[in-house]
TrEMBL record:
Residues 152-562 form the Amidase domain. The lineage of its organism: Eukaryota, Fungi, Dikarya, Ascomycota, Pezizomycotina. Coiled coil: none annotated. This is Amidase domain-containing protein. Gene3D superfamilies: Amidase signature (AS) domain. Belongs to the amidase family.
């Protein structure tokens, strides 16, 4: 494999700086509705054209028209940028990668606390014969199956569990361990995947009552890579319906409560995947990022979430909700699990013409001699609540004073307009994937959302893609000016989202709070840049302290720098973040007890 100094980029945007003076965002003025008023109002709104037009205009979606800043830019629909070693490079075979992971020395990366068992804890337990993958599967199955008479409280996080497939995979792994032939460090480790990916033998509905299952019954490539490494997929997790909000509130399929504090949402849209890790059910899950969906549940649940560029070419061709912003990525309680999950799942699929050009991820460099540059756009950063800013700045001070990071001031143009452009793009793609005739099958919030989104014109959509191009060209300028730059923001400007009375029965629509909590998460999603969310502190709460997350965004294909940054932040927080909530389950402990 070529070194990074020999690498070059395909489809990298031109480096072009755009200077636009900062303006405070206008206060949002969208109606907040829940309960029966939302239920009946959604039926009316989905059939009243003039109300849809009013709500569309009120959301500010027409604000990109006639913007002079956009005249110099062509629309860019696909933000994918590929870092390659050139046509003469030879990709690492997956089997060679798995062998390298088995032989790698992970001693320096092991988490200091055992509160959240890591993949390596499972590996050591299987290797010693203390427990088997079948023992672990038999502990987990009663906890996560919802189609039984007395479903456990954890079952709400899972949409579908195929006991026959789970036990078959676990028994095959147990046999490999008995023969001393594990496939990788992930062999026999329980994982779960979001209902947004394809999984052979499972339905796909995106957390809705609409069937999006593929007729050829394939498995998404990123999940297949985990399966080929021996991971035991326990099932598909619940998600925010269609992935188009950030709470995880799903009146159709169920809403998992935050294991840290049951008065809070897990975050969305990968709510079930985040719950599964935060509750200790498994060390690693998969989440898809259709609109910041990986980072926000990682923030609300105090987890690590990585949105990876490689995920753009790790999918088999799909039908349904195809998105120019959607990617896959791991969610984990420890950085070592995040790294292992990322390095295995990000092997590119041969079904994508661009896949062979990617440089596969290699062993992560944690040495202090790497470039460490943190970029902060201060007026944007300062939109966060005071407790979030204090926690994030404390972590940044540690990184700069103790770990040799350099902090630089940067600017990013039109961030408020960019957030609207991102929302408009996501919603337009949702409208493409959901037939208008199927709108009645959706929950009340999405009846409203998609009915309003269908008012977006081609002119507005094109303006959004022009703004995307402006922003990514400016980002290219920043990454050229500051090599290895990581752009830092809070993951969300507020700590958690509290569940209020009446929220769960029919769902809720609160675009004001949604837009605020997406203040930062949209940028990586819209620009195609990878990002990581890491826990760096807690906001006190009588029912359970609320995690606070810090987000870093690198240049395209800069996941290795993000993972190294994640390890630095994990060492900063140390034992402070090891706070299992009341719903936490000691799966390995229960499996060992069952053997005695």
């Amino acid at each position: 494999m070529a070194s990074s100094s020999q690498a070059f980029f395909i489809n990298r945007p031109a480096a072009k700086e755009t200077q636009v003076a900062w303006k405070e965002p206008p206060p949002p003025n969208n109606p907040v509705v829940k309960g029966l008023p939302l239920h009946y109002g959604a039926i009316a709104i989905s059939n009243l054209n003039f109300v849809q037009n009013i709500l569309w205009s009120n959301a500010g979606f027409g604000s990109l028209r006639d913007r002079k800043e956009l005249e110099r830019f062509e629309p860019r629909y696909d933000p994918t940028v590929i870092k390659t070693a050139g046509p003469s490079s030879t990709p690492i075979p997956p089997t060679q990668l798995l062998k390298a992971l088995l032989e790698e020395d992970w001693t320096s990366k092991k988490p200091s606390s055992k509160s959240f068992p890591s993949t390596l804890d499972y590996y050591e337990a299987y290797n010693s014969g203390t427990v088997t993958p079948t023992d672990v599967a038999k502990v987990l199955l009663p906890l996560i199956q919802r189609d039984v008479k007395k479903a456990c409280e954890h079952a709400v996080a899972f949409l579908q569990v195929r006991e026959d497939l789970v036990l078959k995979a676990a028994e095959e792994s147990t046999r490999r361990w008995r023969e001393g032939k594990p496939l990788s460090v992930l062999d026999g480790v329980p994982v779960a995947v979001k209902d947004e990916v394809d999984l052979t033998g499972y339905k796909k509905c995106y957390g809705s009552n609409i069937d999006f299952t593929r007729s050829d019954d394939v498995t998404s490539h990123c999940v297949k890579m985990w399966q080929d490494a021996g991971a035991v997929v326990m099932g598909k997790t619940v998600m925010h319906e269609l992935g188009c909000d950030i709470t995880g509130n799903n009146p159709t399929k169920g809403t998992p409560l935050n294991p840290n504090n049951e008065n809070l949402y897990c975050g969305g849209s990968s709510s079930g995947s985040a719950y599964s890790v935060a509750a200790g059910l498994m060390p690693l899950t998969e989440g898809n990022d259709g609109g910041g969906s990986i980072r926000i549940p990682a923030n609300y649940c105090g987890l690590y979430g990585l949105k990876t560029t490689h995920g753009r070419v790790s999918e088999a061709p799909t039908t349904g909700l195809a998105r120019s912003t959607g990617v896959a990525g791991p969610i984990a309680a420890n950085m070592i699990d995040l790294e292992i999950g990322y390095r295995i799942m990000s092997q590119p699929t041969p079904l994508d013409d661009n896949a062979p050009n990617f440089i596969p991820p290699a062993q992560i460099n944690l040495q202090s001699n790497r470039n460490k540059v943190l970029g902060i756009y201060k007026p944007w950063f300062d939109l966060a609540d005071e407790d979030v800013k204090v926690a994030c700045n404390k972590a940044i001070d540690h990184l700069t004073s103790k770990l040799d990071y350099e902090k630089v001031d940067i600017t990013i143009p039109l961030v408020h307009e960019g957030q609207l452009a991102h929302a408009m793009t996501i919603l337009s793609e949702l409208c493409q994937g959901v037939k208008a005739s199927d709108t009645h099958k959706l929950s009340a919030p999405n009846k409203v959302l998609l009915s309003v989104a269908r008012k977006t014109t081609s002119v507005d959509f094109l303006q959004a893609q022009r703004l995307r191009n402006l922003i990514i060209q400016h980002l290219s300028h920043l990454y050229e000016k500051h090599p290895s730059l990581l752009i830092l923001t809070p993951t969300t400007p507020s700590a958690g989202w509290r569940i209020e009375s009446g929220d769960l029965s029919y769902g809720l629509t609160n675009a004001n709070k949604q837009l605020r909590n997406m203040t930062y998460a949209w940028l990586a999603n819209f620009s195609g840049c990878p990002s990581i969310s890491v826990p760096i502190g807690y906001a006190p709460d009588p029912k359970g302290d609320v995690p606070i997350g810090l987000m870093a965004m690198s240049e395209w294909c800069g996941e290795d720098e993000l993972v190294a940054f994640g390890y630095d932040c994990e060492s900063y927080l140390g034992e402070e973040r090891r706070r299992p909530g009341a719903r936490w389950v000691d799966v390995l402990g229960k499996a060992k007890e069952g053997k005695e």
